[in-house]
């Protein structure tokens, strides 16, 4: 079995392509073959990206208040998750939040807004923010994620300097109507097409753990390949209390790594990003996953807390990776202040567990608390922790 994946990597490196049967074999590989899968997929990662990790940072410009009924989302209509809810950040607040991530090593800022899609006034806001951000930070990439686009809006974003547009397909077309009913799969594909036509780099990915079959995961990956997605964020379901998917735990750390490896085999030269849910699902295999993926979000997510940014940087450094655009940063003192500072969790948590994380659901989700526990205990320890810092608060961002 081990030789099978190495032979697949060789075939792809020689100009071939993974088939749907190949992708399914990766996904269904026995757990004891995991490192063989990682080693083979890692050959493709190193060929195209070396040991570099692209660091991305999320800024939630508007939180909650969304009329769409995406069942997995804490911001959706009907969600009872106690998330931060606020209208648009000011330009100055948005730049401040983005700057925290850029100083922490990010090269791309993902500017996100909840809602079905932007009004033209919303586009005005993002245009202003983008122009200000690019004036202040040379070389920064901006990715906008604002929902379904209307005609002409992508062109305005492109003219303002936006580099990419994120709109995830989230799941296979055959599973889409099971997870959301207020818009269609075709609506999502249409927005990706609008972004591409305007010259924006298409960023589109998926969420694993939504009740999909193995075959549907393969279907989604090949759809993303067909759509020409340059960046593929692979999210793992965060089962927020108060949403239809609360207490849904379908993923194991090894399955998550195999999903990322499958994405690498199917799209060998594309940015594969480990996105939301990595801490609670990959746990101690986060670093292993970076030998397959080449991109990561730093710090917190839209409505939930992520691993301390300090821990993210240490994980990359300790495993021999370098940050894209800051290849010498781990050796030249760039992050000395970060490494010597208290963790973000300690800064705003009244009490901590032995691993140094907030007691309410293991905010850093390092995996240490999970050792030796039953599956239900692991799930309880790793529930999403609602973000109470960064954008929309007076508490410093986790970056």
Largest sheet: 10 strands, parallel
Q: Low-confidence parts, pLDDT < 50 over ≥5 residues?
A: 346-374
Tally of DSSP helical segments: 16
Residue-averaged pLDDT, rounded? 90
Full CATH superfamily name of the largest domain? Aldolase class I
Structure write-up:
The chain has 16 helices and ten strands. It is an alpha/beta fold and 399 residues long. The chain has two domains: 2-44, no CATH class; 50-338, Aldolase class I (TIM Barrel). α2 (20-27) runs antiparallel to α10 (253-266), α5 (120-136) packs parallel to α6 and α9 packs parallel to α10. It is globular and about 55 Å long. It starts with a helix and ends in an 18-residue tail after the last helix. The model is unreliable at 346-374 (pLDDT under 50).
Which helices and strands occur, and which strands form pairs?
Layout: H1 2-13, H2 20-27, H3 34-49, E1 52-62, H4 91-103, E2 108-113, H5 120-136, E3 141-145, H6 153-160, E4 164-166, H7 173-179, H8 185-197, E5 201-203, E6 206-208, H9 214-227, E7 231-236, H10 253-266, E8 271-274, H11 278-282, H12 286-290, E9 295-297, H13 309-318, E10 322-323, H14 336-340, H15 344-348, H16 375-381
Parallel strand pairs: 1-2, 1-9, 1-10, 2-3, 3-4, 4-5, 6-7, 7-8, 8-9
Helix pairs in contact: 1-3, 2-9, 2-10, 3-10, 4-5, 5-6, 9-10
